[in-house]
Amino acid sequence: MSRPKVFVARRIPNVGLDRIAAAAEVDVWPDRLPPPAAVLRERVAGCDGLVSLLTDRVDAGLLDAAPQLRVVSNFAVGFNNVDVPACSARGVCVGNTPGVLTDATADIAVTLLLAAARRLGECATDAREGRWVTWEPLGWLGQDLIGRTLGIVGMGRIGAATARRLHHGWGMKILYTARSPKDDAERELGAHRVDFDTLLAESDFVSVHADLNPTTNRLFGADEFRKMKRTAVFVNTSRGPLVDQAALAGALRNGTIFAAGLDVTDPEPLPPEHELFHLPNCVIAPHVASATVGTRDAMARLCAENLLAGLRGDPLPHWVNPDVAGRQRPR
Ligand code: GLV
Question: What gap in Å lies between CA 176 and CA 11, rounded to an integer?
Answer without folding.
Answer: 37
